[in-house]
Amino acid sequence: MSALQIANVSKRFGNVDVLKEINLDIQSGEFVVLVGPSGCGKSTLLSIIAGLEKATGGDIEIAGRAVNDIPAKDRDIAMVFQSYALYPTMTVRQNITFGMRCRGVAQADQQKALDDTAKLLQIDHLLDRKPSQLSGGQRQRVAMGRALVRKPLLFLFDEPLSNLDAKLRVDMRMEIKRLHNRLGATIVYVTHDQIEAMTLASRVAVMHRGEVQQFADPDTIYDKPANLFVARFMGSPP
Ligand code: ADP
Ligand code: MG
């Protein structure tokens, strides 16, 4: 079954068509990367998937249910943005468990979920620190931990690594890949970085000016680009 079905989704801001008839059918457990130049509509599409923004036209279904019919608290989606948005006055422990407390998860279950997640992300030694006492990479791990403890069906990432330095970016890339293999969750990951797209994705959707130019596995994108834009942007040989 489709984990996420995007059918004819369009979005208009004022008189600008930011998304034009987007169609993507994403299977459970897939790692899909939306890649394209700045301003092509990636974040807008992600916000619509998350139900944070309403499409002008078209339909989004998550596991067969229209996203707008799912009450916000039941939407099994976790989103990680490029700015980490941790609560500065809370410790790492409080930041990670906050969402669970809001959802009324029992104390004992919270503790177990926190322990497992902290171990997985190697932040178990940082639980009593405040965000200001962490490095950029550690903060990003905490932000991911906060998303992970909820064990969502669908992860949405919006350029989560773009504030990190090059070395850390590569390390975190590997870590995200490892997490995906381990959890088997469905991921939609936005980036403007072609290498990130090609190394992470099971399928890549190349976007340009509000349209999906090609949706295929990385080898196909590289070997058989659908058009000149895809070839140039993704760096295929001429
Ligand atoms: P990307 O994430 O690919 O860089 P965005 O989805 O953020 O692109 O933006 C796509 C286009 O929509 C841009 O031209 C941007 O200026 C415009 N846009 C985004 N959000 C709004 C908004 N709230 N109001 C008007 N225009 C917007
Ligand atoms: Mg964006």
TrEMBL record:
* Cellular component aspect of the GO annotation: ATP-binding cassette (ABC) transporter complex, substrate-binding subunit-containing
Q: Where is it located?
A: Cell inner membrane
Membrane topology qualifier: Peripheral membrane protein
Give an example GO molecular function: ABC-type transporter activity
- Work out whether the entry's keyword set contains Metal-binding: no
Domain ABC transporter positions? 4-234
Give an example GO biological process.
Answer: carbohydrate transport
What residue ranges carry the coiled-coil annotation? Answer: none
Keyword Mitochondrion in record: no
Q: Superkingdom of the source?
A: Bacteria
Alphabetical UniProt keywords: ATP-binding, Nucleotide-binding, Transport
Family label = Belongs to the ABC transporter superfamily.
Protein name from the UniProt record: ABC transporter ATP-binding protein
Species name? Bosea caraganae
Organismal lineage: Bacteria, Pseudomonadati, Pseudomonadota, Alphaproteobacteria, Hyphomicrobiales
> Where in the full protein does the shown chain start and end, and how long is the full protein?
1 to 238 of 371
